[in-house]
Amino acid sequence: MNLLIYKTQAELFEDLIEYIVAIADKAITENGRFNFVLTGGNSPKKLYELLATTHKDKIDWSKVYFFFGDERNVMPDHESYNGLMAKKAILDPLKIAASHIFYVDTTLAPEKAAIEYTKAIRAHFQDTDPVFDLILLGMGDDAHTASLFPGTSILNSKEVEADSVYVEKLSTYRISFTAPLINKASNIAFLVFGESKAVAVKQVVEAADHNTNLYPAQLIQPVDGSVTWFMDKAAAALLDS
Asked: For residue 219, which of 93, 159, 161, 170 sits 20 to 30 Å off, Cα-Cα?
């Protein structure tokens, strides 16, 4: 686990972009494509906008394939749909081909949407293990990541797939990568801002005893890859090290 702590969001984004560029270059050189999983919420929007504007020439976007680690159970034109935020912030500005974007089809029932998303992922990887080059993750102040929320059934999944999950605290369904699918990735990056995350960061990063039912982000332990935390000082304020 690599912990990177920054005084400003601007410094954090600069380093995170260089990290993404390096992984993209390596993946494209070695495999001819970069399989990139985006995260939703507010935190990554500025990152996506920077990638699509001032840093757009650093990656060969024609060889990038985009996925989503989780999605809200709303229609694709709803303001809360993660895919819509990404579409506006990075995908449309970069004119990414539709065949290179793997949206979650939320016009389907949640369970069916998860099944179809898993099928699409497996087809892209030609029925071999889906090992993404980079998965971006956020984390909530309750230590959820993707849509792996405390106390939910998906936390017990051993399957390498996308799954539907009912989140009681939100009274809604979500579609999410399972922890085993995330943990297949070559690289995982957490993007975490703000003092409201400090308690969760400390529990996930430093707790001697794991309680993944209470702190789901503790489930993220790559099998053969690496995990790097990009945090501001406020999020890291309670860390001992």
From this structure: 170
Task: Tell me: pLDDT of 136 over 90.
Answer: yes
Q: 5 has which bridge partners?
A: 231
pLDDT at 230: 98
DSSP class of 207: -
Q: Is residue 241 part of a domain?
A: no
81 three-class SS? coil
Q: 137, 147, 148: which is closest to 231 by C-alpha?
A: 137
What is the domain count for the chain? 1
Q: Which residues contact 82 (CB under 8 A, 6 or more apart)?
A: 38, 39, 40, 41, 68, 70, 71, 72
Kindly report the CATH number assigned to the domain that includes residue 203: 3.40.50.1360
The pTM for the full model equals: 0.97
210, 218, 81, 94: which is closest to 148 by C-alpha?
Answer: 218
d(CA 239, CA 241): 6
Query: Contact 27/35 with Cβ under 8 angstroms?
Result: yes
Give the model confidence (pLDDT) of 87-115 as tens digits.
999 999 999 999 999 999 999 999 999 99
Strands (E), the chain: 2-6, 34-38, 64-68, 70-72, 134-137, 162-167, 172-177, 187-192, 226-232
In the chain, what are the helix, strand and coil shares in percent, each to the nearest 5? Answer: 40, 20, 40
